[in-house]
Amino acid sequence: VQLQASGGGLVQAGGSLRLSCGASGRTFNYYLMGWFRQAPGKEREFVAFIKWSGGSTYYADSEGRFTISRDNAKNTVYLQMNSLKPEDTAVYYCAAGLSKPYYSGSYDATDFRRYAWWGQGTLVTVSS
Hints:
This protein is mainly β. It has no helices and 11 strands.
């Protein structure tokens, strides 16, 4: 699977951005898709995931500012980010992992080790 993330940029605090991640491969429907981010000097952290059916999502942010969605017909996953804060500044990565029952490992979907394929990242900068 090859992933291509886009949509990053510079935005003022309180603004919104929508990230997109296009995937190659005929079996996109069956992949768990996630977004992670890495700020300068910090470790990569989980942002959101969406299961293959699109019916199950989970977020690190408890304020409801982010929404992950997918369009399996377009092989694309999105991350809508609202009410952005300067601390959201980071390189955002999309990632794909095998869905169960095809995944035989033990990592949770919030763990970056759960994902086998990664996009190149897109930079989001939120100014104060």
